[in-house]
Amino acid sequence: MAATLGPSGWWQRWRRRLSAWNGSRMLLLLLLLGSGQGPRQVGAGQTFEYLKREHSLSKPYQGVGTGSSSLWNLMGNAMVMTQYIRLTPDMQSKQGALWNRVPCFLRDWELQVHFRIHGQGKKNLHGDGLAIWYTKDRMQPGPVFGNMDKFVGLGVFVDTYPNEEKQQERVFPYISAMVNNGSLSYDHERDGRPTELGGCTAIVRNLHYDTFLVIRYVKRHLTIMMDIDGKHEWRDCIEVPGVRLPRGYYFGTSSITGDLSDNHDVISLKLFELTVERTPEEEKLHRDVFLPSVDNMKLPEVTAPLPPLSGLALFLIVFFSLVFSVFAIVIGIILYNKWQEQSRKRFY
User: Fold this and answer.
1) How far is CA 28 from the centre of its chain?
2) pLDDT tens, residue by residue, 262-296
3) What residue stretch is flagged as signal peptide (predicted)?
4) Is the pTM above the cut of 0.70?
C-alpha cells in the first residue's frame, strides 16, 4: 500500500521522479537507497514503484566482489573505490565490467544509472565509452564495450568516439540502444548504426556535475532519458514501442578502452519495480516471451545447435551403419556371382 506523505516530506524523500502516464510526464528524481522500501506512487492510475535492493547498487558498495556470495561481481580491470566503481582507468587497452548475480524477473521496471566519464584526452582523442546491459548471459568479456558480441537481450551504449569517419550529421558522445536475439553483430566501424533502435547526442565527458541515464521498460515500451545538463530535468533520448524482453535476464555495465582511453565510473545503479494496471486485452498481449524482439523489426532467426549425441545413440548409429555396410557387401557379392554365371552360360 502506498505511503502518504505531505508536500515537504515528499520532496525530502525524492530528488527527481518522472512518469509517462496517459501521455503526460512528471519529474522523477532518484530515490536515496537508504530510505524506506515501501511503495511510492509515481503517477495516476495506481502506478507504484518499489526499489529492488537485490538489483541495486550504491555507496559504500557492500556486496560487490568476485565471490559467489556477492550480489555484484567485478570483471577485468574494474575496481571498487570509495566514491565510485571504476570500470576502466584512463589507460590504453583496458576493459572491465560489473554484473548483478541475481536474474531479474520483473515485468515492468526502471533502471537509473549515475555515471561519470572523464579523462585527459582532448576532442576526439578519448574512448571508447560504456554500456548498460540487460542480457541472458553475464560475465562474458568481448569487443562490444567490454561485453560479448551477438548478445541476447538489450544493450544501451554511451559511445564517446566516432569510428565512422564519413559521418558528419552525428555528434559524439552518442547514446544508442540495440535489441539482439543472438544473431546480430555490433558493427564497430559504423558505430552500431545498422542495428540501433534510435539514439541522441549526449555531451557527458569531463562535466563538473552529476550525469544520469534512465532506462524504463513498461508495457513493452522502451524509454531512455538522460539528465546531463545539471538542471535536474530528464530529457528524452529514445522511445520505442513493441519491445519484447524476456524475464530472468541479468543487469550489468561494462566499458573498454583501446588506443584511446577515459575513466569510466559508475556511482550507482538503482532498479525500481513499476506496477501498472493492465486491461484484459493487454494481459493477453503482454505474455512472457522467450527471445528478445522488436515489433516491425525483423531479426534473423537463430538456429539452435543440435544437442550432442549420447553414448548409446552413438553406439546404435555405428552398429547399424556396420550392419548396413555388411549387408550391402553381401548383396554385392551375390549379384556379382550371378553375373559371372550368366556370362559363362553365354559362352557355352
Assistant:
1) 23
2) 999 999 999 999 999 999 999 988 889 999 999 98
3) 1-44
4) yes
